[in-house]
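SEVERITY: medium
COMPONENT: batch folding queue
REPORTER: lab tech (J.R.)

DESCRIPTION
The queue accepted two submissions in a row. Attaching both inputs and their returned structure tokens so the on-call engineer can compare them side by side.

ATTACHMENT 1
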Amino acid sequence: MVKVEFLFWEGCSSRDRALERLKKVLDELNVKYEIEIIEVKTEEDAQRLKFPGSPTIRINGEDIQPETAKPPYSLSCRTYIINGRFLPLPGEEYLRERIKEIINDIG
């Protein structure tokens, strides 16, 4: 069973699309998963959860893009860097590749 954490801040509009993409890719990969949806409400929560912005996706505790998951942690929208482009959420192909990499590294 793969543990998925989906962290978001209400102030970012990309969360719904990101969650839909994530679930779609997990289902397409036939991954058995348990998803925990975590709303980050305060700056204190952001620090405690090491929240680099919304949306943040972790697979078995590993951020899908660790290079952009560094401090400062805050209530903010996240930027993913994919193929040299700055994006508000990861695309399906990126999610697919990262999920497969993370799962294969562990199991």
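ATTACHMENT 2
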Amino acid sequence: MEIKNINEFKIVETNDGTISLYSNQFKESFHSEIGARKESIFKFIKPANIDSYNQNETLRVIDVCLGLGYNLCSLLEESRRLNISLNWFGLEIDKRPIEFASNNKIILDYWSTETQEIIKTIYKYNGWEKNSSKGKVLWGDARQQINNIPKNTAFDVIMLDAFSPSICPELWSEEFLIRLASKLATNGKLITYSSSAAIRASLKRAGLRLKSLKPIDSKYWSSGTVGISNKNNKGIKDNSKFYRNLSPMEEEHLLTKAAIPYRDPTGNSTSKVILRRRSIEQSLSRNEPTTNWKRRWNKAR
């Protein structure tokens, strides 16, 4: 339900009753109609399996595109329930959404008093440190700000929640995804709502083991992707009721033209350049046309 306009954003109410924003610049909502809070829990927090960590352990997290802070707030609530500390880094280019969230009583009331205070502190001071948890937002282009994340820290969870690849390819390029994957600890998880073949193929080439998020809504075949690091060939803790192995249909999707990656070798290409570069590569590719893949699997259903 549309409520009103604010600056370059429109406030929208999602199906779980929570508030989100629609960006007039990107022509896309921050969350799907399923629900802003529901999405953060079932597409990011639950698949992270943080309840498998021991009490008093520190969970190291990179949050790509802080936005309105739903993923962080859900993470704060869950980690507090489990008595787990956080060492959190957020990457975000636009401070206006978190400013809106930190001043909006409806959004703040979704969360505990302690979480509300952290969101307000992040807006005012770009981070927080309380008890044994701490966090810091690195404002600016994530492709450059990732350089300011400590190189000696290996991360347990990376949440990638940028606008969709066709809208914001800068944060879905193979080069950026490889850099994110390189920051994972052994058994660390890169989690995203995207089930794009291009993204999955890049994550696979980055050395991650792919899993498919089980759909929240039955009309979809996947709710996203989990890429699990297996550095040093150690055992992988990947048992979860929230994701599964890729199906044969999804595996074949990685062999189509849709799997051609977004490329940004310099790390400063515009979205138009990245999209044009991919379009040219797709036109020259001998991969199976994606329409053939769709037709084949539609018949199989």
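NOTES FROM REPORTER
The radius of gyration is 19 Å.
No errors were logged for either attachment.
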